[in-house]
Amino acid sequence: AKAVREWVDEYGERGKQGMEEGVLIHTDASNAVGKLSVDVNALGVDLLTLSGHHVGAPKGVGALYVRGGAARDLLHDLLHDEGGGGRSG
User: Which of 25, 45, 46, 65 is surrounded by the fewest CB atoms within 10 Å?
Assistant: First the structure.
């Protein structure tokens, strides 16, 4: 458990550095939920995914946490194809 805590602390510091530099940080916390405290602020992540079946939900159910700001804007643009990169015709 100590090694995991050290990794989380280091990851959080890297996440905070990324936020300061405008880099979006994603993590898959599927295996951590229910075993560790998952705090998006402490981790410094912009996007976090989890799989429901790890916490008793049916397979195929999941969640995506999206911090506001640049992460939300990027996801909006990707989902609504507002970058001109979509198919035409």
Answer: 65
